[in-house]
Amino acid sequence: MVSWPRFGIIQPTQGTWFEKQCRNAFESVDSDKDAALDKQELYIALLKMYDSLNSSLPCHMTIPQEAEVESLMATFDTDKCGKLQYAEFLKLCQALCGTKNHWRKSIPLRVICGVALKMAVFPLAGWALKKGVHSVGVPSKFVPAGLTVLAAESVYKAAGGGII
Q1: Tens digits of per-residue pLDDT, 56-106?
Q2: Distance between CA 23 and CA 45 in Å, rounded?
Q3: From the CB of residue 62, how many other CB atoms can be counted at a distance below 10 Å?
Q4: Whether the Cβ atoms of residue 17 and residue 7 lie closer than 8 Å to each other
Q5: Within a 10 A sphere around the Cβ of 109, how many other Cβ atoms?
């Protein structure tokens, strides 16, 4: 049985689970143990953070590109020392995973949309695809339902679908 992380539905980035993921990512990559992350450590910490989120959530959170890290560093380095302390790193992670002002990036919206796509939209698209193949003359017993659902999801991802 899968044990999903317990975090607040309205503001999951304010919960203890999210903060623990941030703290673990921060501490595991602070190689020089100066309680601050430089640009390289920040990128690795974000990779670890997103890996943790993506393994725990039923959706995919998009990882920032390495080129974006420099811009993020400049934005969230409030004391302009060239490194991020933990409080700055936590604010950066909260902003990347959605806040009230940036709700389109929010974890709950991504989870809800991802589950809706996988449980309703892709199966319906697969069913329609199977009906379409049958109408062209291919007997539907030769087209597995799972294959049509996989095809629908693959087309969505190839078209740049960014929710899941």
Answers
A1: 776 677 778 888 888 889 999 999 999 999 999 998 888 877 655 555 666
A2: 10
A3: 12
A4: yes
A5: 14
Distance of alpha carbon 163 from alpha carbon 131, whole angstroms: 27
Return the structure tokens found at 52: 């943790």
Q: Are 45 and 89 in contact (CB under 8 A)?
A: yes
Residue 123 has pLDDT above 80, yes or no: yes
Whole-prediction pTM: 0.62
Q: Is the dihedral of CA 126, 131, 137, 140 positive or negative?
A: positive
Q: How confident is the model at residue 5 (pLDDT cuts 50, 70, 90)?
A: very low
CA distances from 136 to 1, 144, 148 (A): 42, 16, 15
User: Tokens 């020392």 map to which residue?
Assistant: 81
| Of 133, 28, 49, the residue nearest 97 (C-alpha) | 49
Contact 33, 41 (CB under 8 A): no
Q: Which amino acid is at 107?
A: I
Total residues found in the chain within this entry: 164
